[in-house]
């Protein structure tokens, strides 16, 4: 018996276009190369795939990768490099370069991601202010930059300078009055409509995948799914440009989620430079996991939070090596953004704050109440947004994405302009809500009644009664809260880049600031109450409303995304202090508990389900007592599996089977009578092998017998056609389970090994197949959901 070297492989799936047929299909998922076998003593017969053919080992669009095969291929590659490195110094140098290629890729990803984030921040800042006016000294300056360079700016009026003029003042010479207000109002709406129209048009024409947040698709891709073009160069370019336009239009969306998509596009771009990653989809996904961490790092200025976000929220396979490289990529990205310094405050984000007042145990009650609000808001948003997106997919609304964007933008701009808290960018709003009221603050939120006899140290101002500006700000914030809650539901999911982090944080920050001011005034006017007596003396700085805004922002973001650990780390990296971890933890955990009581899925998992992606969440639990025989195909009413025999099928039979079916692969059995399983062969490899054999091997005709046996076939007579041996493309170790295997075990196998299908046998006899789509549909059916919503395998 000849020696064999086996390499792992797999896969098959069933087509969603042929639900009535059992077997394996190509159209909706999965392709893979199987098992290769190297044999000695093959005689004069060709055993195909001696040399790699083009497209063998690659995957088609909307197919799932074979994790086991990719891991095996990388192990073989590494073993080959290690062996060669002992032969010469040149091979040793090549092995060292291969080992360092991962760190080089991380360095490049971090630098490009940080640079793009800095450019996006600067462009958004300028274009947002462009809706209201222009800098005469340099048109490319934002309002703040324009007044920085002015020598005529005073501290009290630091937002006003002669070089910056609103459009009405520039056009008519008048900055006050009803006419100037109406003109500024009209131009604000016009600019918003122009920006959003350009954004949706660019996405629709050049890169349809550049729309949305991108995180649901990134999660699906990292789980092993192939979406060609989603991380391509055009998507990177268009997403970067349209993200600036979408955020600048004033819509209730953020750039943080799309920055993760942009970072993953950068990762995919640099993967193509190294064959180690470009030819191995499993290794590519390790790079993409690190790129996601870099994206969050520059989005929030939180490198550690970015690594934890990638680990907790988006990654499917996250080995220790990827953890180190994610940390390095996030670090380089943060350094690059810090060097650009887009906000001019030596910080990585616009809303960096520092608090100087400790929190007290009694404040945990309002913090937990904010957590409850965050959970309720998360539930409301997910249900409302998914209902709207489902309506968009199933009605005429989805056929007019440009019109939808224009209408939502028009409504947003018309309603946002009269309220100063909705007119400004959402990041600036969050920054103001987070800020503590120091002696130098000029915001309405800091319009307190001051005691003239009171000394005013900058960092420790006692609690004071609220002035008229605070009460005006409160009702404006209440209106802004209602507006943000409603409009965000309809904005997220449109055909433009749209992140969810910032709008969710804005909702929580508004609610938190309102609660914080209320608690502050209660503590001031009722300091003799028992809940305030022990920790809030008259004349003390007891309550920090900005802290409540930060806790509310964390609660609402956690309620929508179901993040916990990474969310808390991101928020405390924003504040620069560890003292407020407990309030943040209390709010994040409470919001998750409350939101989970109404549904386990966060917004990203809900959108994955809505789009029918084959995502098997590791957090899903399967507790039903069903067996593999209850789920496997074919069912009793369906035709039997299409199979090949090991030594009695002709080339014509195989070609007819490939032509008449769209299965993605075929089990190989000893004979149709015994149904004893030998292995599994992929449709793609079978097609390539037969085509190549007809070109390279003399005597192969339609009547040639195809052999999958180990021994060389013998030609009985000289006139018989040359047989075709395809042993090398046969997977001799397909993953199998018995028909009485509990589905709980099957689900765990699919989840932990990254399988796409397994064969069902009884005592070695083939009975059927279970695909990843079958598992997902069965789980949906057990949860009383529509199983037909799973469209891909």
Automatic annotation (TrEMBL):
Topology relative to the membrane: Multi-pass membrane protein
Cellular compartment(s): Endosome membrane; Membrane
Alphabetically ordered keywords of this record: Antiport, ATP-binding, CBS domain, Chloride, Endosome, Ion transport, Membrane, Nucleotide-binding, Repeat, Transmembrane, Transmembrane helix, Transport
GO cellular component entries: early endosome; endosome membrane; Golgi apparatus; plasma membrane; synaptic vesicle
Recorded superkingdom: Eukaryota
TM region positions: 100-124, 185-207, 227-247, 287-311, 323-340, 360-382, 402-421, 473-493, 500-519, 547-572
Listed PANTHER family: CHLORIDE CHANNEL PROTEIN, H(+)_CL(-) EXCHANGE TRANSPORTER 4
Name of the protein this chain belongs to: Chloride channel protein
């Amino acid at each position: 018996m000849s020696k064999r070297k086996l390499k792992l492989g797999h896969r098959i799936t069933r087509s969603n276009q042929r639900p009535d047929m059992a077997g394996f299909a190509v159209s909706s998922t999965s392709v893979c190369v199987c098992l290769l076998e190297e044999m000695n003593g093959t005689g004069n017969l060709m055993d195909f795939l001696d040399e790699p053919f083009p497209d063998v080992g690659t995957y088609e669009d909307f197919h799932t990768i074979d994790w086991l095969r990719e891991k095996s291929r990388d192990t073989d590659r590494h073993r080959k490099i290690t062996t060669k490195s002992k032969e010469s110094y040149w091979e040793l140098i090549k092995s060292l370069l291969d080992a360092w290629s991962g760190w080089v890729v991380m360095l490049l990803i971090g630098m490009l991601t940080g640079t793009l984030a800095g450019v996006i921040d600067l462009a958004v800042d300028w274009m947002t202010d462009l809706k209201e006016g222009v800098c005469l000294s340099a048109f490319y300056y934002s309002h703040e930059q324009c007044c920085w360079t002015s020598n005529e700016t005073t501290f009290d009026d630091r937002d006003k300078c002669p070089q910056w003029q609103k459009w009405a003042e520039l056009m008519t010479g008048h900055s006050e009055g009803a006419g100037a207000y109406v003109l500024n109002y009209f131009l604000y709406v016009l600019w918003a409509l122009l920006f959003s129209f350009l954004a949706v048009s660019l996405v629709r024409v050049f890169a349809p995948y550049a729309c949305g947040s991108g995180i649901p698709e990134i999660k699906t891709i990292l789980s092993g799914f192939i979406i060609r073009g989603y991380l391509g160069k055009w998507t990177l370019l268009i997403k970067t440009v349209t993200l600036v336009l979408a955020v600048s239009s004033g819509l209730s969306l953020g750039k943080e989620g799309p920055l993760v998509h942009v970072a993953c596009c950068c990762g995919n771009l640099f993967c193509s430079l190294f064959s180690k990653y470009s030819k191995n989809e499993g290794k590519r996904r390790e790079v993409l996991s690190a790129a996601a961490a870099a994206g969050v790092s520059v989005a929030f200025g939180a490198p550690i939070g970015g690594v934890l976000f990638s680990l907790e929220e988006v990654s499917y396979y996250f080995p220790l090596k990827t953890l180190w490289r994610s940390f390095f990529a996030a670090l380089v990205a943060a350094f690059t953004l810090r060097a650009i310094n887009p906000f001019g405050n030596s910080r990585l984000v616009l809303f960096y704050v520092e608090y100087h007042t400790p929190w007290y145990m009694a404040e945990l009650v309002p913090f937990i109440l904010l957590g409850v609000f965050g959970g309720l808001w998360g539930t409301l948003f997910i249900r409302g947004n998914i209902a709207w997106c489902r309506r968009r997919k199933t009605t005429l609304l989805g056929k007019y994405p440009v019109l939808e964007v224009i209408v939502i933008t028009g409504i947003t701009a018309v309603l946002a302009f009269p309220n100063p808290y909705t007119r400004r960018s959402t990041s600036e709003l969050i920054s103001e809500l987070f800020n503590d009221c120091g002696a130098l603050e000029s915001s309405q939120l800091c319009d307190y009644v001051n005691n003239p006899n009171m000394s005013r140290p900058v960092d420790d101002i006692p609690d004071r009664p609220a002035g008229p500006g605070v009460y005006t700000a409160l009702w404006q914030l209440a209106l802004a809260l209602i507006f943000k809650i409603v409009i965000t539901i309809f904005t997220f999911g449109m055909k433009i880049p749209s992140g969810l982090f910032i709008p969710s944080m804005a909702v929580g920050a508004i609610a938190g600031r309102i609660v914080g001011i209320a608690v502050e005034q209660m503590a001031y006017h009722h300091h003799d109450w028992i809940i305030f007596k022990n920790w809030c003396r008259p004349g003390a700085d007891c309550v920090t409303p900005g802290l409540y805004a930060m806790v509310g922002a964390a609660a609402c973001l956690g309620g929508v995304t179901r993040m916990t650990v990474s969310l808390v780390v991101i928020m405390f990296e924003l504040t620069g202090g560890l003292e407020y971890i407990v309030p943040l933890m209390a709010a994040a955990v409470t919001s998750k508990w409350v939101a989970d009581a109404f549904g386990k899925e966060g917004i990203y998992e809900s959108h994955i389900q809505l789009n029918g992606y084959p995502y098997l969440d590791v957090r899903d639990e399967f507790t039903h007592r069903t067996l593999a025989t209850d789920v496997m195909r074919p069912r009793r009413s369906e035709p039997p599996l299409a199979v090949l025999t090991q030594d009695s099928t002709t080339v014509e039979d195989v070609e007819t089977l490939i032509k008449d079916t769209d299965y993605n692969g075929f089990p190989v059995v000893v004979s149709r009578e015994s149904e004893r399983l030998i292995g599994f062969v992929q449709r793609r490899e079978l097609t390539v092998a037969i085509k190549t054999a007809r070109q390279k091997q003399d005597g192969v005709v339609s009547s040639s017998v195809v052999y999958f046996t180990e021994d060389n076939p013998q030609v009985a007579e000289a006139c018989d056609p040359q047989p075709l041996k395809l042993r090398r493309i046969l997977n001799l170790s397909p993953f199998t389970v018995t028909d009485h295997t509990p589905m709980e075990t099957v689900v765990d196998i699919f989840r932990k090994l990254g399988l796409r299908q397994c064969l069902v046998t009884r005592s070695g006899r083939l009975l059927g197949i279970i695909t990843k789509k079958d598992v997902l549909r069965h789980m949906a059916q057990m949860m009383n959901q529509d199983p037909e919503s799973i469209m891909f395998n």
